[in-house]
Amino acid sequence: MSPEGIGEQKLVYGEAGYVLEDVPHLTDFIPDLPTHTNPLQDNQAYSVVKQYFVNMDDTVAQKIVVHKSSPRGTHFRRAGPRQRVYFESDEVHACVVTCGGLCPGLNTVIRELVCGLAYMYGVSKILGIEGGYRGFYARNTITLTPKSVNDIHKRGGTILGTSRGGHDTSKIVDSIQDRGINQVYIIGGDGTQKGASVIFEEIKRRGLKVSVVGIPKTIDNDIAVIDKSFGFDTAVEEAQRAINAAHVESESVEYGIGVVKLMGRYSGFIAMYATLASRDVDCCLIPESPFYLEGKGGLFEFIEKRLKENGHMVLVVAEGAGQELIAESMRFMDHEDASGNKLLLDVGLWLSQKIKNHFSTKKNITLNLKYIDPTYMIRAIPSNASDNVYCTLLAQSALHGAMAGYTGFTVGPVNGRHSYIPFYRVTETQNQVVITDRMWARLLSSTNQPSFLSQKMVEDARQEEEHPTQLLDGEEDSRNHNGVVLLS
Questions:
Q1: What long-range pairs does 481-486 form, CB within 8 A, spacing at least 24?
Q2: Where along the chain is the active site annotated (predicted)?
Q3: Is 372 labeled as ligand-binding?
Q4: What CATH code is assigned to 235-381?
């Protein structure tokens, strides 16, 4: 592996600045593997589909808005079934594991992996690993069949159970090898995908014919590269209930304030989209956009102005917002959970108390403030119709890739087309709301709230978003325009 721990980059260069960030294949480290006819060609469900198999040269562009003089840029391999597969149906022994926090849609992904393997590829040996990564060596497994998973999509949570941490790579790969498993489907967030990458590297080192496939999960929608993560639509929809309750409470009393804390450890997508969808929110605070409480242009001044105008207000805050302010006032030391995530202080409770204290002591106003935290209610519900469809596409794209011999990749939509993405691309950074982007401007226009940003902050944010060209430094000197380059 490279010093950064991202393994090898498998790059293919073409004309006009075309770069394919390809994913590993079993034949990269196990040469001369036999191929087989894809059983889908005899599947009656697909008999009427024209050109069902994906062309081997199909790729998906990471950027679709370009200038006429722009290079063709970065592409990813398009997901979908191939004409030739590297596993025969009766030799496949697959396993599924869920890791990290709960998220709507987990059971739907499990169901569609099992049903897809069984109904499309005739696979009969599928195991569920209980309790996350440590379940490989410390818990029991359960047999998964289409019948046993038939209605699990109607339930929240995960039938396999989950946990954080528990990643002992050698023990996990030993268990995979001992059980004869040759397809591993890992559902989880950033930390889970990093773990999956390490598992793949160890399997590659041992020369095992095992496909390792990641399915990215984060309710916060902060997975890099992909358009969105499953469970996000459901979370935004469910957040409306909490915002509506806060609105009803606040407008029913004098000087009413409803404070709603939504998920978003590092990224404020749920808070932003829920605010835009609701239209009842007066102010939205997210981790990407710093704010301050006192003084001209501060939050307290805005709250006072809005109360004078309307007599009530609703404030939505993402859980990761204002953490520096809380840590400063409480002298809090950084701590992490088992997944390496920073443990956050409750910004909702802290902010609610700060607001009440300010108006009671400095303004002599008694507020009727209601604080609502729907976090665990949102995480635990089944996915909605939109997410159910999306989870189906994710699961089927994942198993098509594994059957075609691809490994060491995660799957997701890029500009609306499902793609196979190297692990390092979804773990090297996190998606965040771009506060210099039009979407955040739309929110500010909708709520008519101040941005709380100084001109210097805006300029700094703009400079951070100005990326160089998509070609790597020094690329012109070393690339082979017609071949594959492995960069360690």
A1: 481/13, 481/14, 481/15, 482/13, 482/14, 483/12, 483/13, 484/10, 484/11, 484/12, 484/22, 485/11, 485/12, 485/13, 486/8, 486/9, 486/10, 486/11
A2: 220
A3: no
A4: 3.40.50.460
Radius of gyration of the chain (CA): 24
Q: Is the pLDDT of residue 109 over 60?
A: yes
271-378-232 Cα angle (round to 5): 55
- Residues 235 and 478: their CA atoms lie apart, in Å, by 46
pLDDT at 485: 45
Whether residue 6 is predicted with pLDDT greater than 80 in this model: the reply is no
Residue type, 17: G
* Range in 168-177, 389-398, 458-467 with the lowest mean pLDDT: 458-467
Given 220, 222, 233, 387, which residue is catalytic? 220
Provide the whole-model pTM.
Answer: 0.88
Quick one: what percent of the chain has pLDDT higher than 70? 88
CA 316 to chain CA centroid, nearest Å:
22
**Residue 284 to residue 317: CA distance in whole angstroms:** 6
Phi, psi of 253 (to 5 degrees): -135, 165
Query: Confidence band (pLDDT; 50, 70, 90) for 148?
Result: very high
Architecture field, domain 9-229+383-427? 3-Layer(aba) Sandwich (3.40)
Same fold, 9-229+383-427 and 235-381: yes
**Is 403 labelled a binding residue?**
no
pLDDT at 182 over 50: yes
Q: Is 265 known to sit in a ligand binding site?
A: yes
Q: What is the pLDDT of residue 334?
A: 57
Q: Which amino acid is at 438?
A: R
Q: What is the Cα–Cα distance from 369 to 261, expressed in whole angstroms?
A: 13
Lowest mean pLDDT among 176-190, 229-243, 357-371: 357-371
Q: In the chain, what are the domain boundaries?
A: 9-229+383-427, 235-381
Is 101 annotated in a binding site? The answer is yes
The answer to whether residue 222 is catalytic is no
